[in-house]
Amino acid sequence: MNNTLNWTEQDDRAVDTARILAADAVEKVGNGHPGTAISLAPLAYLLYQKVMKTDPTDSLWLGRDRFVLSAGHSSLTQYTQLYLAGCDLELDDLKSLRTWGSKTPGHPEYHHTKFIEATTGPLGAGISMAVGMAMAARKERGLFDPEAPAGESPFDRTIYCIAGDGCMQEGVSSEASSLAATQNLGNLVLFYDDNRISIEGDTKIAFSEDVAARYEAYGWHVQHVDFTNGGTKYEEKIDELYAAIEAAQAVTDKPSFIKVTTVIGWPLPTKQGKHSVHGAKIGGEEISALKKELGFEDTPFAVDEEAVAHARQNASERGKRLRAEWEQKFEAWKQVNPDKAELLERVSGRTLPADLKLPVFEPGKKATRAASGEVLSALASQLPELWGGSADLAGSNNTTMKGEPSFLPSERSSEEFQGNEYGRTLHFGIREHGMGGIVNGITLSGLTRCYGATFFVFADYMRPPVRLAALMGLPSLFVWTHDSVGVGEDGPTHQPIEHLAAYRAIPNLALVRPADANETSYAWLGALQHTDQPTGLVLSRQDLPIVDRTEYAAAEGTLKGAYVLKDASAEPQLILIATGSEVALAVEAQKVLEEQGVATRVVSMPCQEWFEEQSDEYKEQVLPKAVTKRVSIEAGIAQGWAKYVGFEGASVSIETFGASASGNVMFEKLGFTVDNVVETAKNVLG
Predict the structure, then answer these.
(1) In which region does residue 444 sit, left (phi positive, over 0), alpha (psi from -120 to 50) or beta (all else)?
(2) Which secondary structure element, helix H or strand E, spans residue 420, and what is its range?
(3) Catalytic: which of 236, 286, 385, 432?
(4) For residues 649 and 632, is the Cβ–Cβ distance under 8 A?
(5) I need a labelling partner for 252 at 20 to 30 A (CA). Which of 125, 139, 305, 482 fits?
(6) What strands lie across the sheet with 510-512, from one edge to the other?
(7) In what order do the strands lie in the sheet with 630-633?
């Protein structure tokens, strides 16, 4: 950045243009959040026009800084700046705010509007994703250009995030911000819009903490820019704000927190500071008064064309200059690093090496969580872009690649985990919600694939980021172990019951529950091959039989979501459909049924979602419509299985919470025995 800020009357005029556009856009559609977009216009304009590295012609430029609007309800804070900078939004897009098919939905949506880096809306989520992006930037630098001097690599970038009072109250922001300080993320700048207003009015009724002191306690570099001068006089201190940003950029061993004290809706003549302007249209009379005060024509969307032209020219010229400077560095890097340039090309397309090798497991016994750990270690040397860790359960989740250092500042190394700033093993701490958001942020950054792990029962803590990943079509990876009552003695608080059905209910999420070690290998392959949806790998605590593939179908069928593991001795009269640990039970039940003269097919269905992607012909091959006698076997609730077993079928399931006892006892008491499966099948057959 330059030491002096070049800010003109035209910049002031462009800021005011953003204000009136925010007011008019909400007024036209009849709903929305105009207040923050009006009072934060100077900060947003400063970032887009004077601070961030942005190329208005290329939303995916590798060298760009990243901007995340955690206060996603104030989407106009970002949309108006994209319009002013000529970043693929025009005036008609603002006029169609919050309407079907527009580029300007109620909250910013990744993949929907160019230059939107993340889907935000659930408050605090943006902060966690920004932390992930900052971690990813450091990791990507380590992967491609670790020796470059600080600030000189084409992979260096800064992540900027704007958050509000609601974000600060949500627990996910605390989880992620705490870890950001532990990670010394000097490439992260978080702005807190301290306007003390939420939907119910003044935040003092529920929020009284000193947020800046909280961030100091985390270990952030903290500054305060007070537009209100302690409540005595309002002035938008652009120079002071710019200096604070420069100071934040100079601190490279801590993330930076800039508290900006504002009055929501300033400079509205009579409604500034009122909670009514937070989440509702302002009203024609007040908008007319605002336009009169700012010197604008009292007509909807009557922009100052000269100010818009000024902003667009500045953004264009600045973008061209920054892009040219970056391209020079990037070309020089490519010349010196041809192998890494080749890797960059592959990971940018999210493709896998053609010669990728998966572990093959011989018959025996192994928990699928243990098999997953071996798969990860086998993939380590083949996929340098793959990394991840656990929410303090690495040993139980089996998520540590063998021999790989931890990703953390070297001074944070412990006796158990040694690491460096470019390491590979992530330690999320006991922060499942934050972990999910950080994994999403890392994946959004685009050059690596990241996984986060915990016990499946504690996936409840991280459902919001999993849903956001699915909504964004983001290939985040989640590893959930201890998948059933097989957890055993820890009891019902730790035994998942409804979780499989609950997570399958999320559209565009693939949930994979492999039956054995070899299915686990292919589960990982399938997860890595899918680049337009997140995947949850649901793995057993207990040992499971490794299917003898000389007698049963190849585990490659996992990639199709379901496959005939063992066909009937004749035209099937009955189909047993099972997942995970219950596949072995289905295999044993099949033997008994066949001995009793019932031609029985066993289908392993590790992933319903992948199965639904297959052709109708394939699905008919696996589950012929003519065979209506079907039994599903899964250690969870039956919800969701009716679509496969039909009206004439049944489910062996668990419809109550578990208890504290060994896993074997739990399965027996809850009916997961060969005898019960056989009896259920006979009842279905009549």
Answers:
(1) alpha
(2) strand 419-420
(3) 432
(4) yes
(5) 125
(6) 419-420, 406-407, 425-427, 386-390, 449-455, 477-481, 535-538, 510-512
(7) 563-566, 600-604, 574-578, 630-633, 650-652
Structure tokens at 464: 């919001």
The pLDDT tens digits of the residues spanning 376-426 come to 999 999 999 999 999 999 999 999 999 999 999 999 999 999 999 999 999
Which residues fall within 8 angstroms of residue 366, CB to CB, at 6 or more apart?
516, 517, 543, 544, 546
CA gap 303, 296 in Å, rounded: 8
Mean per-residue pLDDT, 476-486: 98
**φ, ψ for residue 336, nearest 5 deg:** -85, -20
Encoded amino acid at 397, one letter: N
Each residue's pLDDT tens digit, 499-540: 999 999 999 999 999 999 999 999 999 999 999 999 999 999
Full DSSP string of 175-228? HHHHHHHHTT-TTEEEEEEE--EETTEEGGGT--S-HHHHHHHHT-EEEEEETT
| 3 state DSSP class of 154 | coil
Q: Give bridge partners of residue 479 from the DSSP assignment.
A: 453, 537
Beta-carbon-side half-sphere exposure of residue 23 (alpha carbons within 13 Å): 36
- Cα three-residue angle 100-109-104, rounded to 5 degrees: 45
pTM over cut 0.70 = yes
Instruction: List CB contacts of 342: < 8 A, sequence separation 6 or more.
Output: none
147 is catalytic: no
The token duo for 420 is 């460096």
The pLDDT assigned to 384 comes to 98
d(CA 566, CA 546): 14
